[in-house]
């Protein structure tokens, strides 16, 4: 097997993670190619890689571990899998061997920069600080088709505004869901699909990209290109405003159905309205194809 989990020790009082590798790692990169302004190629060969994966998504984390298990045995990877301190229900990540990390902690950032060759963000609930993305190579697996609907819940906004949706792997910079793109895979939105169905399709697209591109990323053998434009960004405030339904809003029936599709995500209570007495009601839509 071409990879192993690392061991780490949390020292109380010092707020510091001490890396204790299970194998001898050099982390030395050779034959690197300097990035250019637009279309770029990154190449190199690593005899051993210290990999940090920060994820709050168990299915994608499990898929990543499976990918690592199929690596060429000549490529040695030591994996340190973490979930963020923002994760309120980390049990499934813990079962995968993950431990908590706070990438906002300056001491932790110092440790990451000095101890890891590569950091992957896989549906991480914390934003990486500027110092982190500029101090070590950071790559994001994003459930959206950059640069369209960057930010929160891309699939929900794509149902509403018709912009492309899909999966993107990109180099991280100081902005959100920004930076040069390594790979993308579009996903179509069916007329009867809610946010949940589209999201599940995006996850499958991410897994496909992961299987194809993770080995290249680990070896530093991939091309990057600039996004077509700056695109658009939607924050959590924008999504919350969608969920607050106006019963007197004027629009086509298509618009109203699309709004309910965009805010329906399984059993989550998202969209709501208030009646004349101020009572709050949650609403979601279920669509069955005839």
Number of strands: 18
Q: Helical residue percent?
A: 25-40%
What order do the helices and strands follow?
Answer: EEEEEEEHEHEHEHEEHEEHEEHHEE
Unreliable runs: 7-38
CATH class of the largest domain: Alpha Beta
Gross geometry: elongated
**Structural class of the secondary elements?**
alpha/beta
- Under CATH, the homologous superfamily of the largest domain reads Formyl transferase, N-terminal domain
| Number of helical segments with 4 or more residues | 8
CATH topology of the largest domain: Rossmann fold
The CATH architecture of the largest domain: 3-Layer(aba) Sandwich
The total domain count is: 2
Reported for the largest beta sheet, the result is: 8 strands, mixed
Radius of gyration: 21 Å
The CA-CA distance between the termini, in Å, is 48 Å
Task: Give the helices and strands, then pairings.
Blueprint: E1 3-5, E2 7-11, E3 16-20, E4 29-30, E5 40-42, E6 45-46, E7 48-55, H1 58-69, E8 76-84, H2 91-95, E9 99-101, H3 106-115, E10 118-122, H4 130-135, E11 137-142, E12 150-151, H5 154-161, E13 165-171, E14 181-187, H6 195-219, E15 222-224, E16 233-234, H7 236-243, H8 253-263, E17 272-274, E18 280-282
Parallel strand pairs: 1-8, 7-8, 7-10, 8-9, 10-11, 12-16
Antiparallel strand pairs: 2-3, 4-6, 5-15, 11-13, 13-14, 17-18
Helix pairs in contact: 1-6, 5-8
List keywords for this structure.
elongated; GART_AS; 8 helices; Rossmann fold; 2 domains; Methionyl-tRNA formyltransferase; eight-stranded mixed sheet; 29% helix; 290 residues; alpha/beta
């Amino acid at each position: 097997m071409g990879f192993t989990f690392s061991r780490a020790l949390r020292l109380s009082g010092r707020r510091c993670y001490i890396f204790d590798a299970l194998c001898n790692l050099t982390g030395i990169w050779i034959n690197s190619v300097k990035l250019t302004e637009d279309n770029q190629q990154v190449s190199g060969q690593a005899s051993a890689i210290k990999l940090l994966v920060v994820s709050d998504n168990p299915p994608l984390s499990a898929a990543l571990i499976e990918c690592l298990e199929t690596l060429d045995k000549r490529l040695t990877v030591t994996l340190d899998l973490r979930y963020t301190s923002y994760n309120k229900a980390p049990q499934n990540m813990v079962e995968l061997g993950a431990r908590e990390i706070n990438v906002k902690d300056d001491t932790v950032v110092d440790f990451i920069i000095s101890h890891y060759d590569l950091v992957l963000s896989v549906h991480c609930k914390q934003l990486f600080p500027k110092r982190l993305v500029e101090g070590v190579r950071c790559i994001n697996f994003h459930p959206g088709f950059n640069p369209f609907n960057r930010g929160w819940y891309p699939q929900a906004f794509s149902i509403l505004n018709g912009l492309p949706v899909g999966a993107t792997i990109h180099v991280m910079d100081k902005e959100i869901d920004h930076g040069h793109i390594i790979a993308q895979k579009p996903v179509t939105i069916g007329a009867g699909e809610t946010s949940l169905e589209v999201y599940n399709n995006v996850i499958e697209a991410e897994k496909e990209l992961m299987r194809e591109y993770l080995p290249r990323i680990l070896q530093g053998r991939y091309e990057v290109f600039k996004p077509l434009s700056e695109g658009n960004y939607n924050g959590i405030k924008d999504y919350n405003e969608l969920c607050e339904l106006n019963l007197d809003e004027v629009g086509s029936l298509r618009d109203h159905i699309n709004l309910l599709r965009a805010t329906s995500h399984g059993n989550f209570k998202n969209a709501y309205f208030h009646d004349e007495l101020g009572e709050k009601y949650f609403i979601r839509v279920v669509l069955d194809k005839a």
